[in-house]
Amino acid sequence: MLTRRVFLAATLALAALPAWAQDKLDLTILHTNDLHGHTLPFAYTEPERSKDEQPSVGGAARRATLIRELKKKAKNPVMVIDLGDVATRGPLTNAYEGIADIEALNATGYDIGTIGNNEFKLKDAAERFDAAGAQNALLQVLRRSHFPWVCANAGVGEAAKGELIPGVHPYLVREINGVRVGFLGLTAPRSNGYPQVKGWWVGDPVEAAKKWVPIVRKNCDVLVALTHVGVDDDKKIAEVPGIDAIVGGDSHTFLYKAVEVNGVPIVQTGEFGVNLGKFDLHFAKTPAGGWKLASYDYALLPITSKLKEARDVKAVADAYAAPLKNGPGVLLPKRFLGATPDERTRRTSEAVALALAKATNAEIGLHVEGDGFFDVFRTATLTRYDIWAVMPFKNKVATLTMTGAELAELKQKNKGLILSAPASDPTRLYTVALVDFTATGTLKLDASRLSVGGDLREAVIAGLGKL
């Protein structure tokens, strides 16, 4: 028996369009996935398009311009959908716990959002065990969204009771030109192991599809699964009878052509908003009076610097970025600026290692090349935004004492390990500064040996100021 909540979700019609008798429906889905807080433009290398790093791609304001241009030109209904992991990893995400990213989507005019595994991680790194805080942050994001969210396989309390996340629908139905189009949401099951999910549950998406597809099909004519499970699980979900198409995310897969399984096309844009997906679905009425997907067209449209930035969306993004971008910068010595992507990663790691030593008065700063980085230092004057872009998570700086022999062994076992100064005496104890995540996560050092200090980013700023 359907509960009242599920029934309401199933019958929800979003801005229903006028209906008339017809034999076909053309629907365009413009979609993004795994934006990961890349609200402002950034440098990126997309190997399939270019071997060279592009200095400025993506960004919510450019994407909004393209979306609006496509909607203006379209001769059929268009929906704009995100497939999860809107937040985390970007410089604005942890500063505002996802709100800046969502407000950019609000200004753009998204129609539906899908819960990704990183929506559960709005408290992360040093705060990852604050389950109540992470869950409240997600609920706040949901409340601030001007569009509904879908996810049928995650909820609160005990999984056996099946209570879904407050404010999230298992599915939605939109009546478009007289045809009922269903959208079923599914998310990645590994979220269930996160400390932030304590007291909540995340179920198997394939099993959830088997449960929910028959329910949704009773209330719709065609069904599109909106997933954040990765292409491999999408292929399993495509085997569930009753699904017409799958728009996915999670695996950061650049699908320049749709993957078909069981006649069901699967699409995904890659990552970070480098591309916008354009999925044109052409449905036809069957002789029996039902509906089927007759054909489709698909393309990944790059978001490049050739696109103008939509002023309203840019204003939203800039307002959130301003506190991190304004104010005095920190000077970075030229020796820490590389000419190539690999060189920049190396030099940024060297700068961080030395900065941590300076900030803590340790004899040696240690870093593993690129560990925990999501960007690199690119200019001689760094703002907080630049440093947050490289290290977005709220990790801590830590210190410990190690012998020269221990450090030599670590360096032998860990390719790319960087020491800001030599540890030439194998028997001597050195004070060493490093990132707490690098210590316990990457190097597997005993946490009891660490003296954990303050915020990593603030330590790097302080240390760079002493160079």
UniProtKB/TrEMBL annotation:
User: So where does this one cross the membrane?
Assistant: none
In alphabetical order, the GO MF annotations are: hydrolase activity; nucleotide binding
Q: Which InterPro entries match?
A: 5'-Nucleotdase_C, 5'-Nucleotdase_C_sf, 5_nucleotidase/apyrase, Calcineurin-like_PHP, Metallo-depent_PP-like
Q: The organism sits in which domain of life?
A: Bacteria
Put simply, this protein is called 2',3'-cyclic-nucleotide 2'-phosphodiesterase (5'-nucleotidase family)
Q: Give all residue intervals belonging to the Calcineurin-like phosphoesterase domain.
A: 27-253
Q: Does the keyword Isomerase apply?
A: no
